[in-house]
Structures are given as structure tokens and as C-alpha cells.
């Protein structure tokens, strides 16, 4: 439900450029706690987004709460003005991306972990095997709720997680939005469509037709790509749109 206040904020706010070469004006901050979620790694101050992202995360957390899931841990979103992070991933630049952890509030973050909470991987990346007991009803429900929202363009998950979803829900329309990618075994990455009113937002090419459970997934599972062992050095600065300067 879009309230007049939200609508006004959305019109003042702009996602500019692409997901990996862009910025954000008129960002909103996601409150650090709310119904059904908690923001983690808050000292990074990456909890900003376009109002459509704030709205999405708020609704998703409430829906998860209603479905009986433990509180969600929300990781990186965007910086207040968007743009490239100094470390970590390349995208998250235009306020339309968010990382949501598979670890949930039933495995609470201890005080000693506050700065850098321990991840809870679902997949052993070296063997490309699901870790026993980690992909269950809660994880499937969360992915279903997250991917079913019409404003979601795609969601990145580890290929082994996509494979697990393909086994359990091959007919579901939302499965198409789950895209295999390296990493993404402890969290999934939601990417929203360009919002209405952001004329300078550059969309990504549409995802291929079909549920993506066939040949494409098979090639990921065969090649088993992994994250680089040492994090790559500072990436070259992308050329940002003029409106970001
Ligand atoms: Zn991400």
C-alpha cells in the first residue's frame, strides 16, 4: 500500500544510472530494526536506498513475520548517495539492491559478533554441496516471498541453492527470477526494477525466458565457479553518469 507520504518521497528520489555504475539522490534510510528484521553491520552505513527499496524490505519483513519466520538480517543496501563501495561487491550503486542473509534471528547475533556477524553458509563452496539441514522450509519460504513481489527484477543465489529450489518448486513463476551467481551461499541479493519517476535509471537486460532450471543451471553446476580466494584489489572506478557528479 503506497501512502501519499511514500509517494511524495518516491517522486523526490532518483535511482540514477546502472546497478554497477550509478548513484542515488534523495535516499531514505531503512530504520535499523523493524517488524521482522534487523539491519546488520550498521557501522558500514550501507542501509540507504531508493524509497521503493525501503518499501520492499519493510513489506517483505512483515510478510516473513506473518509467515512465522524468524527476524531477517538485512546486510548491504547502498550508501546515502549511492555509488561504488570501497570494498566488497561492485553493484548496490543506485539504491535498488539489497543483501538478505539466510541466517535468521533464530540464530541470534552475539554481542561479540556485532561488528562482523558470522555467516551461516548453506553451501560448501569448495565441493558445491548443500550443507546438511541448512536449506529448509524457512529458506524456501523466504525466497518465495522475496521473489514473488512484482517490483523485483532478479535475485542472485548460489547455483546449488537455485538447484534446490528447482527441485522443490519447478513450476512456480517466481523461480525464474532466481539467478545463479558465484558467492551468495550465505545471503541472497535482491535487485529491484527501475522505479517509476527515475528517468535516468538504466535497466539490466531482461532475464531469459523459462525457469532457468535446465541447461543454464547445469553449466554452472558443471563449471563450479567460486569466489576468488583473495578479494580482488580496488576495482577501477566505473564511469558514472554526469548526474552523479
Ligand atoms: Zn549484494
Short description:
The protein is of the alpha+beta class and 245 residues long. The chain has helices spanning 4-12, 51-66, 137-148, 159-168, 215-223; strands spanning 14-18, 21-25, 28-29, 33-34, 37-39, 48-49, 72-74, 97-104, 123-124, 129-130, 152-157, 178-180, 187-192.
Structure explained in plain terms:
The longest helix is centred in the first third of the chain and has 16 residues, at 51-66. The strands form 4 sheets. The protein has a 7-stranded mixed beta sheet. Strands 1-2 form a two-stranded antiparallel sheet. A hairpin with a 2-residue loop joins strand 1 and strand 2 (21-25). It is globular and about 45 Å long. The model has no long low-confidence stretch (mean pLDDT 93). The protein is α+β, with helices and mostly antiparallel strands. The chain contains 5 helices and 13 strands. Zinc ion is lined by residues 76, 89, 92, 97, 99, 189.
Low-confidence stretches: none
Give me the strand/helix succession: HEEEEEEHEEEEHEHEEH
Q: Approximately how much helix is present in the residues?
A: 10-25%
Strand content: 15-25%
How would you write the strand order of the largest sheet?
A: 4-5-7-8-13-11-12
The chain-level mean pLDDT equals 93
Radius of gyration: 17 Å
Count of helical segments?
5
* Overall shape: globular
Major sheet characteristics: 7 strands, mixed
CA(first)-CA(last) distance: 34 Å
Class based on secondary structure composition and strand pairing: alpha+beta
Strands, total number: 13
